[in-house]
Amino acid sequence: MRELLLVRYGEVHLKGQNRPYFLRTLVNAVRRAVREIGGNVWISDSRIFVSDAQNMDECIRRVTKVFGVHSVCPAIEMEKDDFDAVCAQAVQMMRPLSGTFKVNARRSDKRYPIDSPEINRRMGERVLEALPGLRVDVHSPDHVLSVEIRDKAYLYVCCIPAVNGMPLGTNGRACLLLSGGIDSPVAGFMIAKRGVEICCVHYHSFPYTSERAKEKVVELARILSEYCGKIRLYVVPFTQIQMEIHQKCPDHYTTLIMRRFMMRIAERVARMDGAQALITGESVGQVASQTMEALVCTDEVVGMPVFRPCIGFDKIEIVERAEQIGTYETSSLPYEDCCTIFTPRHPTTHPKPELIRKAEEALDVSALTDAALQGVECIEVGE
Ligand code: ATP
Ligand code: MG
Questions:
Q1: Separation CA 230–CA 304 (nearest Å)
Q2: Separation CA 251–CA 291 (nearest Å)
Q3: pLDDT computed for residue 341 by the predictor
Q4: In terms of DSSP bridges, do strands 47-51 and 40-44 run parallel, antiparallel, or are they unpaired?
Q5: HEC string for the chain
Q6: 260 CA to middle of ligand 2, Å?
Q7: Whose CA is nearest to atom 21 of ligand 1?
Q8: Which residues' Cβ are closer than 6 Å to ligand 1?
Q9: Residues of 291-323 as b/e, b for ≥16 C-beta within 10 angstroms?
Q10: Ligand 1 center–CA 117 separation, angstroms
Q11: In this structure, are strands 99-107 and 143-149 parallel, antiparallel, or unpaired?
Q12: Which domains are present in the chain?
C-alpha cells in the first residue's frame, strides 16, 4: 500500500486518433513539472499517476498548473484482491470526516468479481457501520469516496481542481505583448492554456520607466512560466521611438502610433522566435486605444493573427482571472509603464487609418524599428 497522486485529464480525451500524441505530451509535461522533486510519472488506462515525490503539497501545487490536467487526487494504492482490506482502508480515510457521503466505484478491470453498484453498496455499508456519525446522500453528498479498480485498487476522497486546457506545445507558438499591467498576463495565460507555447516582448522606456518596472515584468513572466515552462522575454528599448513620436506627430495620435510600433516590432520578434501569432491584453472599449476603430488601426500594420482573449471581458472579470492565476498582486505594483508616459491629454477615439498613416510619414518607421530591434535584450525566465 502507498500514497500517490492520481491525475485526471480533461479535453485530451476527445482527441480521437491523435489522442496518443496529446497524452504523450501531457505525460511529459507532468514529468517536467515534478522532475525537481523526484516524482515518478506513468500513465495506465486513462489515468496519470505520480509517486515518490519528496513533498506531496508541492507536487499537487505543480501538477495542478499543468495545462491539460483536470484535477489531481491524493490517493491510496493497494492490492485489490482482498476487498475487505480495501473497505477497511476506506473506513480509515473517512474517519476524520463528518456530514454526508456516497461511494463512487469505477471498475475498469471487468474481471473483478464485484461490480460497481455492488462495490458502492458494500463499501457504503462498511463505512456506515464503522462511522455512525456519517450519513449517505447520493444526490449532493459532502464527500465522495471514490474507488477505482484497475490493476490495483485506488481510493481517494479529495480532488483538487487543476487548470484544464490542452497540453503545452500541441498548438504552436505565439508572442505575448507583456506590459506590467493586469490584462496582458491574463491574455497570455488564456492562449497558453490552449496548448500554445509563448514568448514575450516588453517595451521599456529607460530612464522614463525604471529598472523596477522591468523587474516587475520579469516577475510576471516568471509567474506565467510556472504554467508555461521556460519563457524567453525580449525587452525592447522604446525610448527613442517614443521621443520621436512625441516630437514629430500630432499629440492626439501619439498613443496609436506608438501602438503600431509595438505591433510591428512584436511581429519581427515573433518571427525571430518562431511564433505565428501575437497576443495582447486588449479589451474592446477599455481605453482610447482600444475602441473598434483604434484596433483596426493597430491591426493594419501586422501580417499575422492578433489574439485578444480578453476582448469581451470587463475589467472586473480580468481582475478575477488575474487573482486566480496569481499575477494580480504583482501587476498591481505601482510602477510606471511606457504607455503611461507621454500620454496625450485628448487621444483620438475614432481614428482614421489614412490620417494615422499620414502622421507617420514624419518618422522613419523602418529605421526606428530596426534600431529598436538592434537593442533587444533576451532574458530567459523560469525552470
Ligand atoms: P495591461 O493591463 O496589460 O497593461 P492595459 O489595459 O493597460 O493593459 P494598454 O496599456 O493600452 O492596456 O495596452 C494594451 C496592450 O498592449 C497590453 O495588454 C499589452 O498586451 C500591450 N502593451 C502595453 N504596454 C506594453 C509594454 N510596455 N510592453 C509590451 N506590451 C505592452
Ligand atoms: Mg498597460
A1: 24
A2: 18
A3: 67
A4: antiparallel
A5: CEEEEEEEECHHHHCHHHHHHHHHHHHHHHHHHHHHHCCEEEEECCEEEEECCCCHHHHHHHHCCCCCEEEEEEEEEECCCCHHHHHHHHHHHHCCCCEEEEEEEEECCCCCCCCHHHHHHHHHHHHHHHCCCEEECCCCCCEEEEEEECCCEEEECCCEECCCCCCCCCCCEEEEECCCCCHHHHHHHHHHCCCCEEEEEEEECCCCCCHHHHHHHHHHHHHHHHHHCCEEEEEEECHHHHHHHHHHCCHHHHHHHHHHHHHHHHHHHHHHHCCCEEECCCCCCCCHHHCHHHHHHHHCCCCCCEECCCCCCCHHHHHHHHHHHCCHHHHCCCCCCCCCCCCCCCCCCCCCHHHHHHHHCCCCHHHHHHHHHHCCEEEEECC
A6: 15
A7: 177
A8: 177-179, 181-184, 201-203, 262, 280-282, 286-287, 289, 337-339
A9: beebbebbbebbebebbbbbbebeeeebbebbe
A10: 55
A11: parallel
A12: 2-161 (3.30.2130.30), 173-381 (3.40.50.620)
| Per-residue pLDDT reduced to its tens digit, 112-123 | 999 999 999 999
pLDDT of residue 343: 77
How far, in Å, CA of 360 to CA of 362, rounded? 5
Q: Is the pTM of this model over 0.90?
A: yes
Q: Which position has the grid cell 522566435?
A: 273
User: Closest residue (by CA) to atom 10 of ligand 1?
Assistant: 339
Tell me how far the alpha carbon of residue 180 lies from the centroid of ligand 1, in angstroms: 7
- State residue 338's pLDDT score: 67
Which residues surround the ion ligand 2 when the cut-off is CB under 5 Å? 179, 181, 337, 339
The pLDDT tens digits of the residues spanning 251-260 come to 889 999 999 9
Q: What is the pLDDT of residue 339?
A: 64
Tell me, in angstroms, the distance from the centre of ligand 1 to residue 66's CA: 26
- Give the tens place of pLDDT for each residue, 19-53: 899 999 999 999 999 999 998 999 998 899 999 99
User: What amino acid occupies position 108?
Assistant: S
Task: Mark the ranges of the chain whose per-residue pLDDT is less than 70.
Answer: 338-341
CA of 227 to the centre of ligand 1 (A): 21
